[in-house]
Write a structure and sequence with these properties.
52% helix; Heat Shock Protein 90; 2 domains; 431 residues; disordered C terminus; single chain; alpha+beta; rod-shaped
Length: 431
């Protein structure tokens, strides 16, 4: 369509009578058309901008929706699981492009609030549970110690072999019950409830053996050269920990296969090694044991599982509380698992074997040289004299002679007297 300039239109219309009327109308119509074209162009520009903005908003909404779904279904469940299983990995944001946005800040605040709320609830639940356990253990321990007193008195007075055998069996069952109570006491954050005097390390091995079922499969071996003992405050914790390790070894090597418990003197102190001939431990069990025995681990009752695995957790608590170390590994000379308790020199002492002899049930060392005179510090290994004849070390300790029922009861009483406990009460300061 040919465009006619407004000036030409004005000239053409001026020669006619109607020009005075049509010209202004035409010009007005042209201006309106031009204004409409401008408005249309502006509307198209605005519509395009709105489309771009809509696309950006839609993209942001999609990212936010995906990030929210990722938070609800992946990050929060992992975060909650990590509160009870610290090794759990919590995934990061799904879209790093949202980092620094208000949405990301809100999500971070939400995670913080959830963590605080769940941690507070866990702390309250654990404190309540531990208080209930402490109260129950206190009552049951007191009664068990009184029962032990009665049984000890009966063993000393009875002459009938059959009754002596029954009393001895009841005493052993009572010891095993006390072991379980002491494990619970450790998990509840309280002391084991029993005080002892300084005790020979071989006596500690014998005491731990007496607290497990199927104890006849346990072979005790002492490689000590000196009468080394443990200071009184750490005696009972070491017995509890060792008994749990031995019980685990017996459980993982059922049948007639023996469990070896060997006592060594090492540069760092004294070492007790428990070895079984089972199938070893799978990776999950090793990871759980490593976590429970970690000196820096902070135990929560909820991570013990259902049914709760209390033994290793109690060992870890006792080791952290009384400053000895415990470890577990799979693969030993028998193809099974190996547990180790390392007692540092600070918890060791030299005892006078004449004034405080070991109990008859304690394992004897392969040789017994006279103790070094002088200070009471932990003795160093001696050098053998060149002229001294070599004495072969036995592969295993000699089998004890057969004992009558009365002799067994007397040996049990001798052990109880050899590591005399303090007052039969759960009251007192924690060691």
């Amino acid at each position: 369509m040919t465009q006619i300039p407004e000036a030409a239109v004005a000239v053409l219309c001026a020669g006619t009578g109607a020009g005075a009327i049509l010209a202004p109308m035409y010009l007005t119509a042209r201006r309106r058309i031009r204004a409409g074209d401008s408005a249309n162009a502006l509307a198209k520009t605005q519509l395009h901008a709105a489309g771009v903005q809509h696309s950006e908003v839609l993209q942001q909404w999609t990212l936010a929706a995906e990030e929210t779904s990722h938070l609800v279904h992946r990050r929060l469940p992992a975060l909650l699981q990590r509160l009870t299983h610290p090794h759990t990995t919590v995934p990061g944001p799904l879209h790093p492009v949202l980092s620094g946005t208000t949405l990301a800040q809100d999500f971070h605040q939400l995670e913080h609030l959830v963590t605080e709320a769940v941690t507070g609830a866990q702390h309250t639940a654990q404190s309540t549970t531990q208080a209930m356990i402490r109260d129950a253990v206190h009552t049951l321990q007191t009664r068990a110690y009184k029962a032990q007193e009665v049984l000890t008195d009966l063993q000393a007075k009875v002459d009938d072999p059959w009754l002596a055998e029954r009393y001895l069996a009841m005493d052993e069952l009572n010891e095993q019950q006390l072991q379980r109570l002491q494990v619970l006491a450790s998990l509840a954050g309280t002391w084991p409830g029993l005080s002892r005097q300084d005790s020979h390390l071989p006596d500690i091995l014998a005491a731990a053996k007496s607290r497990v079922q199927d104890a006849q499969r346990v072979q005790l071996i002492s490689m000590l050269e000196q009468p080394v003992g443990v200071v009184g405050r750490a005696v009972e914790p070491v017995i509890i920990a060792l008994a749990e390790f031995v019980a685990n070894a017996l459980s993982f090597s059922r049948g007639s296969v023996p469990v070896h418990v060997t006592l060594h003197q090492v540069a760092a102190g004294a070492c007790i090694v428990v070895e079984d001939a089972g199938l070893g431990l799978h990776a999950d069990m090793v990871a759980f044991a490593t976590r429970m025995l970690d000196p820096h681990h902070r135990l929560t009752l909820s991570e013990l599982g259902d049914p709760p695995r209390t033994g290793l957790a109690a060992i870890g608590n006792l080791a952290r509380e009384y400053n000895f170390t415990a470890s577990v590994q799979t693969g030993n000379r028998f193809g099974g698992a190996q547990a180790t308790i390392l007692i540092p020199e600070a918890l060791l002492t030299v005892l006078d074997a004449a004034q405080q002899p070991m109990s008859p049930s304690a394992p004897l060392p392969p040789r017994s040289p006279a103790p070094d005179p002088g200070t009471g510090s932990f003795p160093q290994r001696r050098r053998r004299q060149p002229a001294a004849p070599a004495v072969p070390e036995p592969a295993a300790p000699p089998e004890p002679p057969q004992q009558s029922t009365g002799d067994r009861a007397q040996a049990w009483r001798s052990w109880q007297q050899g590591t005399t406990r303090g007052p039969d009460t759960t009251e007192g300061d924690r060691s």
